């Protein structure tokens, strides 16, 4: 079968079910519109935050290059987590004052009023059990209202007045009018307000917040927030971006402040040492009148000087470790106040301090939701304790390494200085004094420069991060997405309706095609009769029954006195219709034909006006003549059935007499009988006629009746039963194959409108 024709055949149920598809799709769209009406619209706002990049950012310029002495390379993913951290969100919630939420209770949904509330609530006291609980406000007049709150799931109402305090013990509050009172406050409208806990505020922000990097190689972060009120969405993203920058400046300033204190302490000690060495050098020169030394000692002195510099650096690192060790052992509040970097340059220890700060921050967030006895808090405490022990052990190990290095430098320095033992004592002493003075002066200059840088960092309240785009209130809601919902609903409606049509088609339990009938029965099928339409009626019937008559002729069945029985399993399968039209087809081939109506319970030719009873005539020994024959509207000779008590007298003898009489009068005799499943009167004729044409009707006859004819043939041993499938789709040929609507002689290839009419006439039947 042609693939295109096969596809067309498969599409026939869908085309015929277009009204069902349209109906279900319309219902789905109407339901989607209802969902859109009931769904709370959400508005979205974005802000863009650019992080400073050490390689290309502002901090790399000559003016600011050394300001951020504690700079660490930015990890975009880490900064995304900082922006989503509970500490920063908690600070934003405190700045925006989301402690009280106001709503207007509508008939369909609840609307958040935000800053447009016609009243404001001032809580002077509130028990912790009423945090995150709803309070109802029912306005009675311009000055009076009713306040409702829940006590163990029971709603309690109180009478109150605006600007007057209500004291119920568990809460004390006062409701005041705002500037929006006259414009938006309505009587007989229920308002709701909730005192949000800090935990609830953070959850409300986190649930609608998303932060992500624009690209992993671009230091730009997009901050987005969804809210029912557009202004609220814009305020949250802007507050979060500003809060991140302010937090960055505060941390940097705090680190610079602590570093400045440390440098100041060291500067006092170095300053005293420098003054002492300067005094000793001046005194020695004055007493010994020394101006310069020999050029040959400069190389050795330079080496010794370099070793001394390393030795002093070791001493500073050791002193810094001692100071840090004392701070850690004496500070019981944790590491959150500790500067994120250390002066001895241990990068591993710096990362440990950062990790400890991260753990303590996570512990604070957990304490917002859980108690100290909670398993998650205990696990975090265990991590902090293990890391603290590791940090202390790291300090001890580092100190041991520095001590070993100091001793090695001390030994090496002693070896280098031995070369000056042979010099005159004055020169040697002069070298030592100048070296000590120079080292102290270099250390003093270094510490002075770093103190100045720390002071500049502390005083400069600037950030190398930048807000590229501030959030603005959205003009259109992002959810529900009306177009998407309507499209998906319509698509689902189409899919569901098509699924329903095809399920109904394949689960109907009816015989649909010749191939299906061939699988269900072993009897031969001699033809298929397509269903005729209103437009093609007579011409189409003539064509298909002429084809069936030709099939009879090919099989050598159209001889003088041939008899045929039209039978079926159920009423309504088209026996009378096929009998009449088949008779007309035989007449066109020059045959004389008579149709005998033996359907005693449902005669197919009631319009006949013949009063004579051929049953009684045969019983009385008379012969059937043309006076018993009637003509129908198409000119076909019909021997009608008389519904009277004589019908019960039909037997094999009478039927044999009838057949012999009619064979003398006509070339072909066609018997129209009753349904075999209902009555068995017609079974007498199965063995008396030449051929039995057993009809099945497409989409009408149940599959359970498909073997009825075969059962009769097997039970009684009849070999003359042939099957015809009636009323199949009109685009099916006589062999039962789908050919398409164009392959028929009545099709006229006209314009597009004519084609469309033709296709609709064929496929919608």
Structural description of this entry:
This protein is an alpha/beta fold. The protein folds into 4 domains: 3-39 and 480-506, no CATH class; 45-245, no CATH class; 273-462, no CATH class; 514-763, Rossmann fold (3-Layer(aba) Sandwich). An 8-stranded mixed sheet has the order 14-21-20-15-19-16-18-17, sandwiched between helices. Strand 8 and strand 9 (171-177) form a beta hairpin. It is elongated and about 175 Å long. Mean pLDDT is 78; it is low at 56-73 and 338-343.
Tell me briefly what this model is.
This protein has 765 residues and is of the alpha/beta class. 48% of the residues lie in helices and 17% in strands.
Find the CATH superfamily of the largest domain.
P-loop containing nucleotide triphosphate hydrolases
CATH topology description of the largest domain: Rossmann fold
Number of strands: 21
Helix share, percent: 40-55%
Q: Would you identify the regions where 5 or more consecutive residues have pLDDT less than 50?
A: 56-73, 338-343
Shape: elongated
Structural class per helix/strand content? alpha/beta
* Name of the CATH first level of the largest domain: Alpha Beta
**Radius of gyration in whole Å, from Cα?**
52 Å
Which strands sit side by side, in order, in the main sheet? Answer: 14-21-20-15-19-16-18-17
Mean pLDDT: 78
